[in-house]
Amino acid sequence: MADHQQDAHGAPPGRSRRGTRRHFIAWLSRAFLGLWGLGAAGVAAAYLRAPHGGERAAERLVRVGLLDDFRIGEGRLIRHGTTPFFVVRKDAETVVALSAVCTHVRCILDYDQRRRALVCPCHDGSFDLSGSVLAGPPPRPLQRYDVSVRAGEIFVLLS
Amino acid sequence: MIRRPGLRRAAAGLILLAAASGAVLAGRAGAQPGVSRPQTVGPAGVGVSSGRCGVCHPAQRAEFEGSRHAREQVRCISCHGGNDDTLEQARAHGGDFRGRIAKRAEPAVCAKCHSDERMMRPYNLPVDQHALYQTSGHGRLLAQGNERVAVCSDCHGAHGILPPSDPASRVFRTNIPQTCGGCHADSVRVGKNVFDPYVSSVHGRELLDHANPRAPHCVSCHGAHGAAPPDVGDVDKVCGQCHTAERRYFMAGPHADALGRGGLSECASCHGDHAVQVSPPAWLSTVCTGCHAEDSGERALGERLWTSYQAAAADLEEARQLIERADRIPIATDDYKARLEQARTYVNEALTAAHSIDEATVSGFTARARSVGTEIQSEIYAKLGNLNLRRLLLIVFWFYLILTVLVLRRFRDASRTA
Amino acid sequence: MSAPAGTERPAARGNWVDWLERRINLTQLFSLITHFGLVYTPIDTSRPIREVLRELSQQKVPTYAQWPRVLGVLAGILFVVEVVTGSLLAFYYRPTPEEAYASTRTIVRDLPFGWFIHQVHAWGAWSLIVVVLVRVARLFWDGLYRAPRELLWLSGVALAVLVLKADFTGRLLAWDTHSYWTLVRGLEVVLAIPLVGPIVDFVIGGSIVNEDMLVRFYILHIMILPVAYIAFLYVTFGTQRRVGLGQPAGGGPGGTTTLRRHLYSLLILTVLAFGIMVSLSVLAPLPFHAQADPYTTVVGLGPPWYLLAPYAISEGTPIPGWVAGLVTFVVAIGVLLLPFWWRGGADEAAQRRARIGGIALLVVWAALSVLGWFVDRGAS
Is the ipTM of this complex over 0.95? Predict the structure, then answer.
């Protein structure tokens, strides 16, 4: 296809159809190659979009819900990734967050509202609301997490 | 230079004084804060609590001075009588001197103070030790005239008594097995060696090797002063003090009644008592033959429980391996790990619930575990399948790439003419 | 660029070029390209850019987009691929032990196309190592180390060493258990080499792999080693400009082509190399390991594969460690300074002797490497 392409340029009036087609193919080929550039730009743009990066730090701060949604004495299990935790409203102002994983053989705890304790269904281990072991086989107290109440919303900072 | 000699001497004296006081102050400043000066030992071995007894009895005095009693101004004469303010043997060993306290008399001697509510109140110590002792195995044998039993000093020591909270005490929790084992390891002496089985048991290993403060020792099950072997009907109640969940299920099952009527010890029939180990889950099907026939319906039930448990455990193991495989790609697995933990909870509960021998309860737990496991597996497989999309796109990509190379070659060869 | 050389588009598009040309010497800027081996003849910077470009497009250049000369170009292309993907990775990577693994995992697991960029970077690194080592082997095979091409050989070996060092430093950045412990073993070997060992020890901050070392590795990997690499590329092209490309012994592609065609060939080569990298990334993705735990030694891991040979000498045989280091040092210096001590001529017999010697060394090195691999893994 090494023909002269003189007639494809300058757009003289009445150029041949062959020249126009060649011109079109050349343009098409250039657009085709340009797709590579578009593709690369698209990949880079999708990758570099910042919000995804910002979310990571935010993952550790969990919004649990509204303070008013918790009755006094109520406790809820929040299944958050590999760190499920209990949020318990002890009184009008105090909310505590404790790990929901028993320190014995890692069963998931239940909350006993009457006894104000976290109880393990596997071997009857129990913990009080500050995480200390009340009874049973667990060897270590539960991990506590920082709770902050901002504008009526409960946030738990997992560490 | 100061000209006048008198002034010079005065100046020299002042400097010396300053230096000396400086040295003394430096010495005092250099001393570590908080180090209290040791108890003054009076001249010629006279101790604060031991009086002059220690002059002739230095070994006992040394032991006693380190004990809890010495700090509470208990004196040698409090237990032994006599006089501690003289070195004349006649006077020292006179009066109400008791000398070496006879074994049969010892509990009463200790009880003189330790059963006195008014004396023990300031320390808030119990005063029932003597009463309990008289009900114990040791106490009853002693009352019958058998002196080859333990009395107070055999466990607590005689002169060097320390409180049970002191790690050096003979009755500190990690030392208790050794203390009891002094006699109870000797099968000739007491008929049965229970010390060695205990030390090899899971309880013994937890207490002695891992220093687990919640692990049971001899006193935990047998009591201290009222020490006696729990009777057959009581063993389960003792175990159930810690293993509350297992006992709850057990009492709801058929074994509670049956073993009680048969006069067999309940927990210990399957788990042993002193030599108890962690029960392997496989026992669900094997331990039944201890009482039931090999081909009996009960054994078959045990077999079914074991199968149900095994299936759930295998499902979870498969899920765990899938999660590991996903992590290597990596795929986000945090949610799956959390659900796996929940499923593990169910499987652990199933083992505890197995004490009720109730198939419905146990399979309830294992079924829940299996459904979580299956869920996890199917979701991960779906995600792995999505990855195959990449391979398909690769084929499309290669079409595109070959086309590009052809176009470029066309451009390249088109410029041959220049 | 579909117009044949010699004709141009109407003046409408040329205006901005003239506009710039009146303000800055475009030809001089363009002449920087000669530093990087695309153009070998000097450019007269007093002439306008359009004339220069027109002439250049007619120019004859040697066909080095074909085997075996393509190895050099490939090393350059792969280097550019690594720099681009590495820059993208660096946007999200954090060089502290606490966050290195988590940030890498975010890139690979959560970010769109993160896995792709990471895999291309990893496979690109492997390919670059292969290319650069094969290039050294081919320079040796074709006798391109003899006078006057000593500098070519030196920079070729230096490029290979720099790439291996970049691999060494880059591994640790992921802070996963596999790379952490292979690095610890690798450091054992490197620090035992005389002269080089103490210098490396000083530069990387000791032999304890902690947060200080990670930062130093990071800076080495993203700044210092790439700059050194470019410097040696510079040397390579500079010496080639002076002494010419050299014919491979026994004949080979010695023809010439126009610069324009040559540029297209390079573009095709880039596209194909990229395609292979993408295929490897999708079909055979390199695995992602667990997080490094400095307190738990992984049993059975040896040093990186290129350090297995000295490792085998020090660990697999009763020879003491310092002897192994000394042997490695002597061999490395010998390879580096090959043109200066090789006393053979340019004739067939000498060439054959050299090649046999090279093959022998390679076989010994390979055998030692295999032995080194089994020292840890087979013995247990």
Answer: no
